[in-house]
Amino acid sequence: MFLLYSIFYLLLFSTTFSKASNNNALLDSANSYYSSAYYEKAINAYDSIIKSGYQSSEIYFNLGNAYFKSNKITSAILNYEKAKLLAPEDEDIQFNLDLANKYITDKIEILPEFFLTQWLNKIISIFSSDTWAYISLISFITVLILVLLFLFSRIMFLKKLTFGLAILFLILSIKSYVFASIQKSDITDCNSALILTPTVNIKSSPDEKGTDIFVLHEGTKLSIEDSLSNWYNIKLKNGNEGWLHKDDIVRIAL
Amino acid sequence: MSIKYILIIISLLSSAFINAQTKFTVSAPNVVAVGENFRLTYTLNAQGSNLRVPAFKDFSIISGPNTSSSSNMSIVNGQVTQSVTYSYTYFIQATKEGKYKIDAATIATGGKDYQSNTLTIEVVKGQGGQTQANSQNNNNQQTQSSSIPDVDGDDLFVRVSVDKSTLYQGEHLVATLKVYTKLDLAGFDNFKFPSFNGFWSQDIETPSQISLQRENVNGVIYNMGVIKKELLYPQQSGEITIDPFELTCIVRQKVNNRQRSIFDDFFGNYQNVKKKVVSPKVKINVKPLPDGKPTSFNGAVGKFTFQATIDKNNVKTNDAITLKIKISGNGNLKLADVPKVNFPPDFETYDPKVSDNITSTAAGTSGSKTYEYLLIPRHAGNFRIAPVEFSYFEVETKQYKQVSSEEFNITVEKGADDNNGTVMSNFSKEDVKYIGTDIRFIKTKNIELKPTGHFVLGSLWHNSAYPLTLALFIVIVVIRRKQIKENANAMLVKNRKANKMAKKRLNSASKYLKENKREQFYDETLKAMWGYLSDKLSIPVSDLNREKAFEILNSNNIETETISNLSNLLDTCEYARFAPNSDAGEMDKIYNSTINIIGLLDNKIKRNAKT
User: Fold this and answer.
1) Partner A contacted by B295 (CB < 8 A)
2) Are residues B266 and B305 in the same domain?
3) B312 and B279 housed in the same domain
4) pLDDT band at B139, cuts 50/70/90?
5) Is pTM beyond 0.80 here?
6) Both A35 and A68 in a single domain?
7) What residues make up the domain containing A164?
8) Which chain B residues are Cβ-neighbours of A152 within 8 angstroms?
């Protein structure tokens, strides 16, 4: 019975392993296609890696680059945004995203955020969700070790020190757990989207007959606030709201 | 033998030489119908004899050869030129459908034999109603039985014919606007040419006089005239439609009058009828150029040679340099953009002077295009112009070809006017020039692929890690607590044992304490103490004194505090033995502390012995 189980596990691991090595080969070929300007082939190769159920910020970044080079700006922006979700503080991603955003039609003034929110967002985006989760767990274990030292030490100074540190690490553990969950929800419940059709009239109500409020163009980023049958209530970064049809946008979701 | 060969070669050469003047040709319509009479004419521009014609298999000769001759004399500026034409005409009728080759005929003139060219005649199925086919070359006249002047769509139509319907973007195609007719055409009117949207078009020279030729269209013979020829370069990929071509033809038609006069038949009674014809649409499938364009590719399709030259390599500042780039070959030269040259940013450059020498033929546009760049170096130094690259798409091999010039190294020395120093009174700083913007290159290193939607947070091991470590923590605390407690218990047991032993030794002392016999009590206490030390430290009673005992205790790592306590106790006991007044409380205290000290020493010494 044990033998059977071990063979089963071996098979399971070997298949996942071969899948990973296959993807690495695909990745190398995709990168070399990109370098020799076969952008269509590079796009196909990157796509098939993502379709096989694996991802990384670099793959999305490279795919975005390939789309950019073949003049598909909206797809490029979409993939840069996805890469940014996985690696929020990456400078290269931000640079290329900014450059790609220069090619889209709509210019939207971003409302300034409250400085504390801005700082908090900055701090949260220093690490990825996984890293925050690790930090939380490690600091939790540190808290326990410090409490042990506190309990069994006879020296007064050490007792005071470990008590203080334990409280600090406990706060760190809780905070990083919260940060990790915020980042995770940013990725899983992402409500950002891009406009897909060249020109869209934004309506005042979820209805074809609704009054046109303003016009948006391909590639503009917006957030989805609400949905009603086939319509989305969207909000722009400058605070404007309106309704549009579901088919006109593509969600930035991994 | 060799002389004979030489003679033959000489005669061949001479005949070739004469051939340049003497021409013997054959002409006949390209397409004929079965049963149709047509003319086959041999023409010679000299008087000939002994005409030998090939056997006209599959044709039947109706009459011939009919010989005719014409002579022509012209006097231009007093110079007299005379030309003679002899023609031998056969009237022939085709009997079977098919394609037939008429072999060369020979004729002798001036003692030499000449050979005519060969012909291919296509014979198609004859028309049912064409009984009286008395057609003349290049002019088809058909009698209409109906009196109403009507033009049938089958008798007159126009077409836009293209030499290829599938091609690459930038490749050329030739579109020919043709008119087909079985009728007698008097002229054309109201040309409406297609706009050729999606193409860049170029006219090809055609004779202004439209001459009609016979052509076989689905087994029917038509007279075909070329109206216009266009060279087209598709500018976009996908399916492009060429708009219809519209033309109004003036058709001469014979009218049959009721009252027939004798002149009617003789001169004919003709009427001009206008008929508008429209060509069908033509669809062209344009393939986009394949992937893998070199960076220097600028849209050139065809076959080119490329050359870049520079007029001088050594100049002084502010002297002009000319860089000449010449692209020549066959293809869409006119549409090719300027090749990009990376000049040193410090050079002053001007837009290139472009001159071209391009001709358009049915084989495409060919010629050359020259770009002349004027460069003025403003600063001294050694400069390098990277090789100029030019690439094009070769249709035959379906590949991109890349050619590059050599690298140019230019040495710029300080010119005379720089040395004056009067101009350079103020130094101006320049901003760093950013020459281009591009996205950052892809990431190739340290790519870690993770399964999609996998997070550490919320995973089973991460979730269970917290309670597990907490449980471990609690277990450690509990175990440690218990251990401490047990340790404390062990100490207690040991103490109790030591106390018992001490109490035993102080047995008699306690008896005296109860009886309150002071002197005996102290005596007995001292005795017990010394006895204990002697036993424990294994010192013989004869050697026993304070210094020796304390020394050994010291070497046994007994704290000095305990030792001094012991010493104090000994002092007190010795002193109290002879002191007259001391109460029972004092004795009690000493008794207890003796027990304590003995117990303490016992523990310590035992532990040391263990370790």
Assistant:
1) yes
2) no
3) no
4) very low
5) no
6) yes
7) 115-188
8) 480
